[in-house]
Amino acid sequence: MSVSILDRVDRQLSNSLPVVAYRKPNEKAVRVVLQNNSDLHYVEDYLESGFVFAPFDSRDPAVLIKSHEIFQSDLDEGSISLTPVVPNGGDKGLERENYLAAINKGITDIASGKLEKVVLSRVLEVEAPKKPLALFKELLSLYPTAFCYIWFHPKVGLWLGATPEIFLEMENHRFRTMSLAGTQLYRDGVAPKWEIKELEEQEMVTKFIRESLSGKVASMEVSEAKSTKAGNLWHIKSTVTGNMGKFGLADIINALHPTPAVCGVPKEGAKEFILNHEGYDRQFYTGFLGELNFKEEVQRPTTRRNQENRAYRTIKKKTSLYVNLRCMQLVDERAKIYVGGGITSRSVPENEWEETKAKSRTMLNILCR
């Protein structure tokens, strides 16, 4: 990756101007979107174009970085092997006690029939001795199969992440989303074995997507659930694809967000439980982010009827949104790392605590290397 593209990111950060740099899963190209002023823009109807950053709570507005300038350059760096990191900050006794108490309360509400599933999260704080751009470069090297990003707005804050989960992709009238759940630590040469709790959790997400999109899309297909590796973790994933119906992008987003993978079932009841019992503000954690209505020029060959036999150009509109998982917020040389897990009737509180510790390693790996 050329130094100049990183220089542009660094210059925006130094001048306190909005910027986002990101790389899509399994790609080499890093794209940078720059806004040339510090104005704070919000999404109103998802007809806008730019880079969207949406919070968990859909009652709060999604932020839009205007694409005044866009740069792209390939990444050309050697990969870095993962070194297991033992979380060494933020796992204090009181924090553990509060998290386990919230889990037990969730299990009680599930047993009483109020909920089927609720996703509970926590935040841990550690020192951030590295510069933001250095952390971003480490994300790119460590997590080639994730959506890696650094996002900054002077009136909102600075976030970085490496998320494995697509929220929604749209190209013209085609859409794609995914059902992702279950978590196990990756061990070299060892295939994951999924428990009933994890399989049921993934099926809940798939069922929610089917029901939420029913009547809003013209067609829908769901792939077989398979194990997928993301960084040092395994998950269970199904891909959902289809054609749009008469409803627009805003209708689909509002129907899906937040999904059971980050909220719970039923959606509104689980969301209310989270807001009342987590004890902190998730902000943009478990929201979504990505390209909104980006225009892409496509060269198409002409038919033989065109005597000049020249290619003609068409413009297609693309949206690529990702769930904001495995992320952190940088505040005054401290990193707030956000982690969580799905709670069902089969959950064991101690196991859920350990799962969040495993998930925290995605960000700790780049802070503590």
UniProtKB/TrEMBL annotation:
Pfam families: Chorismate_bind. It comes from the Bacteria. Residues 96-298, 316-359 form the Chorismate-utilising enzyme C-terminal domain. InterPro entries: ADC_synthase, Chorismate_C. Gene3D superfamilies: Anthranilate synthase. This is Isochorismate synthase.
